[in-house]
Amino acid sequence: MGSSESHANKWAVLAICCSSLLIVAMDATAVNVALPSIKHDMHTSVSTLQWTIDGYTLAIASFLMLGGSTADRIGRRRVFQVGLIVFGLGSLSCSLTPDIHLLIAARVVQGLGGSMMNPVAMSIITNVFTDRRERAQAIGIWGATSGAAMALGPMLGGWLTESVSWRAIFWINVPIAVAAIVLTQLFVPESRAARPRRIDPPGQALMIVLLVSLVYALIEAPGRGWTSPLILALLAVALVAALLFVAVESRVAEPLLDVRFFRSVSFASAAVTAILAFAAFGSFLFVNTLYLQDVRGLSPFDAGAWMLPMAVVSMVFSVSSGRLVSRFGTLPSLVLSGMTLAASGCMLAFLRADTPVWYLMLAYVLFGLGSGAVNAPITTNAVSGMPLSQAGVAAAVASTSRQTGTTVGVACAGTLTGAGAGMIGASFAASTHPLWWVIVGAGAAIALTGVLVSSPWARRSTDRVRHLLEEPAHAQA
Fold first, then answer.
1. How far apart are CA 279 and CA 416, in angstroms?
2. Phi-psi bin for 385: left (phi > 0), alpha (psi -120 to 50), beta?
3. Which of 87, 95, 217, 395: disulfide with 234, CB 3.0–4.6 Å?
């Protein structure tokens, strides 16, 4: 009976962790469909709307690794519950705020909560599911939940926006967060790392400065001009922060991000692939939401329904790609992903206000295939060849790269289409063409990284980095 109860508790823990992933991931896609309604209600600009998306993803990207290391130090259950509280309060604030700037601030609070939930939830799952077979099943369900959230997000967001209000997207998070807090106290055991990593304040501060200054410059440049003193200053700050980050992290005993990881072609390609793929995904969602509602005149629900084929195909291939990678390595999945993203971008590069529905659906399905196929190889290449002691950190960097890519993609979408300067109208479809050609290039680059990471040179670099990272452990022993 004790064994049966313990088994049941494991799956209860997984359900609780998946519920946190569901609300965090769903908010990243559901809010996109509500953007035109938020714009209309709050009489705001498109560049400000970009911050409602990027404030959220930027906070997650900036604090994700800190959330994980803090949980390892003071307790995973405790930090997970704090994350749920912060996310719930942020969601409640989003639903009540009367001002766009307060909405952006509340979205940042949501992101802070999310940064304490997802990485910690994965640590809880790996700590509870000690059996290798059960752990693989649990991680598979976790991945499927992420795909389901992406598929449901646009539809649910559109339905709530149209039938109730865009604020309802945030209302539904609150009871889920409250239930998860109570259930976590009842079912989730407390755990800590045997040897938690130290906090790295200089590295954390420099990462925030780098991301915020870069994203701010990309979002505001269309309205202010690329030669604006503010934009040039922000780009200079981002460059200096990047250089200082590398210098500082090379000298810290336990850095936020060990820059030696990037000597591995496999790891470096995983980070680059994640940024490229999720930048394409973030810009795709942002631009298509505006196109479908402001150009084609669809309702929020219909706009979500039109993007559902893309989301469903992405969910299916997120799962099947994992099997493909385990059997054939990352090369087929990365080439498939890159080529289908490029094909979709090429089709959308001829987008018009009256593009036939079948043509649009085919482009969306191809994009969903490419987005789904890329997830498993990103994680596999990130942890490939890493010592077990570093695998968790490497996976966290891959997750941070995904969030960073989404943030940069939304920022670049306004710059490349002119939407950031308010240029939305009948000609908006034509103004998106430069963005789609950039996505064609991103797809080609993803396919190229797949070929590169499968080369003997890449495997040798991964072996060298593994031995390099294992050296302190041998010396300590």
1. 13
2. left
3. 217
Token pair 């009842």 is at which residue?
186
- What are the sequence ranges of the domains in the chain? 1-194, 201-251, 261-477
d(CA 263, CA 252): 17
What is the distance between the alpha carbons of residues 364 and 65, in angstroms, rounded to a whole number? Answer: 32
Assess contact for 37 and 169: CB atoms under 8 A: no
Which of 222 and 441 is assigned the larger pLDDT? 441
Whose tokens are 């939930």? That residue is 117
d(CA 447, CA 445): 5
Please check whether the two domains, 1-194 and 261-477, share a CATH topology.
yes
pLDDT score recorded for residue 474? 42
Better-predicted residue by pLDDT, 417 or 444: 444
- Quickly list H helices, 43-99: 46-74, 76-96
CATH 3.40.640.10 for the 261-477 domain, yes or no: no
Give the Cβ contact number of residue 457 at 10 Å.
10
Query: Please, are residues 209 and 119 in contact by the beta-carbon 8 Å criterion?
Result: no
Determine the CATH number of domain 1-194.
1.20.1250.20
CA of 302: how far to CAs of 77, 115, 160, 296, in Å?
40, 31, 12, 11
